[in-house]
Amino acid sequence: MLSAVAARKAAQAAHQDLTKPLPSPKVVSPPPSPSPVSPKKTVSKRKPSAQTPNISSRKTKKTKTKHERARYFAAEDAFVQQDDVIVIDEGSTEESESEADEIMDQDGSLFAASSKPIVFQRPATSKDKRAWSPSHPLQDSSDELMDDGEDEPFVQNIPITTSLPRAIVEERPLLSSFEPNWNNNIFALSSEEINSLESSNLVGDSAIAIILTPGETLSLLGTYALTVMYGSVYLAGVTLHPSQTIHHVFVPRSSPVPALQCFQSNGKTRDPKPVSLPGRVHPFLNADCAVVVLRKLCTGVEGLGRVCRTFEGVFEPSRWHRNDNAPALGLTGVRMLQRQHRDVQSFVLSSSWERALSAVCPVDLPDNETSDLTLVVCLVKGPKKTGKSTFARTLVNRLLARYRKVAYLECDVGQSEFTPCGMVALNIIEQPLFGPPFTHPSIPHLAHYIGSATPRASPSHYLSAVQALVQSYRLDVQSPIVDIVGDNPDDSRIADVIPLVVNTMGWNKGLGADLTRRIEDMVEPTDIFEVEARPFERSWPEMTPHDPFGFSKTRSHILEPIAASILVNKYSAADHRNLSILSYFHAIFPVSQPRDLQQIFAVSWDTAIPLCARPPYEVDLTQALDKVFLIGAGMEDVIPGEIERVLNGAIVGLVSCDSDAIDVEGGSNQSNKVPYVQGAPPVSPFISACRGLALIRSVSPAHKHMHVLTSLPPYLLATCRVMVKGDLEVPVWGMLDFKPDGGEQDDTIAGVEKSKVPYLQWGKGEGIGGDRRRIRRNLMRKGQL
Questions:
Q1: Which residues lie in Low complexity bias regions (predicted)?
Q2: Number of domains, the chain
């Protein structure tokens, strides 16, 4: 990286004759001493008080002027005294102009020669930053949980110069060292060869086989189905061995991009001619290589970019990668990435993460040793934006190499992994996860609805829900009494014990730290993985050990935070929450009932029509509902006469519980069409369960019906007779019509004029409080007058 002084010298070298000697530096004489100035008496506007002593008797502090004397050898620096902007004329040589046409900056953008002058700007200093003001409101520790999109962007000031060497510019991190050579290390499989494979149940009409040698990496962007046919590969911190398992891999630009690597075993010998591969591939195999088969994956997840425009085109290469001329792999929806650019971050497993993961589950175990039956309970904690959720997902994938099932307790209601935000859930995972949270929405094994992205408004209800999930894990999941062998009886992984991974919140101060400490006492983990705070953040407080005598067997692992990247600032936590909610409502879940301890994951996404044009369920208020609860701050002030307006366009949790668990008489429909009682506490989490979320599109008090949108299967809807509404609202992206013939062209939404569409207002607001709030920061206190 070149400094600003080097950029200035390089610019002046193009116009200055090097043979001309430079002038001798001038010695700067010390500044003359200023003449004494009599202090000016200020007239105070404050009225004299009897209790206040005489102001004139106080000792006033004299302001001393600090004079800095320059050294005798100090020369006059023209760069310090110059203006903030340096303009370079166009009188450059032909050689520098030709180089300027081909020079690329660090981000990959091309600077073409132009007739306009090139402007260099001095980077902003600390003097440009606004000083602290006493009128600025103080932040509470809970405010840090909701300031996801207000952080200052991570900007790296790189001076621009027209004399950079081409070798320095093109030195960007390499993502893929694999060089495709058709019919040598990459093969396009025919239909007959695809059907002859052991994993012939893959869906798709095209497939390629890739041979990876030790040391080669392959980074792919898009969606694809991966099957390991020979050898072992390393993907996102997980080692995959040959099997018939089909791994769905989702790699958008909004998350770190993992690389496929050939994993070298510890001296194990392998058959150089596997039977499952086509015969024309065998001559190119050796004992150290790995063979993977990639096929097209058609799920419709790419259509979520049309729904939420913030993530439009995240599965496609950006304009920086289009100029790389990467070789085509002949597979639809997959693009090879050669070098790293500004909008792509590679998945790198740090040394501290690898040591912590290897302490729980090593990468490569001997064939005759799997693990002991010791229960493993892992708790992951740390500040926000440090990679806590990414590490928890990698830990689940690593444990699945040893156990057939892994339980995942989600305590982060703001950034949930398998469900939309606002829920604490217990999930049962069977397959490794390769993708961000919005690519694997699921119906949890057991969940409870909190109704907000933070437990700040109802901490007691939040702790009760977590305690109910921990109790359910210990009774029903930890040591299952049902047979979980599944479809593969030859699987040698452990089936008698199901380990637990607990993901906590990123709110690590004040009330958030106390809630995390209470969760740790409930779970009693065997391993605690703590992501240390960055230098500019306060670290976690010291935790009291479970055993006061020091005999606790809990192992503590300190993890390094992930490096700050441009992805953290381009896509905020609020954007990811909106995408997860929209992905859940557009997801398609299997209709058949699962077996015991089997979790339901989405198989595809339907983004052909928006939510406002989808046919809803019609629910009879007098027959289908037993009770409606409101939770959150201020919900106890909603009177029964306003409950229809509150439920219009709201997101609610569908809760199932016993009929004897709630007071149906208190919510009788004799006086109100909606069974609602003002200020009633929600049903206890120990006798209820939230099956999923629903969007109430409209409520008709005259006809006693409501229209409901949900992605839950019908067999679950029959048990949900309680609705719970919290602070969670549908994103504005879910209310719009994204079809080409929608409101973007003829000012209509789903065929209705914008002015007549409910829940949406165009233009200036009406009524008191409709305008944007103005914050006055010019108020002064008495001491500042």
A1: 1-14
A2: 4
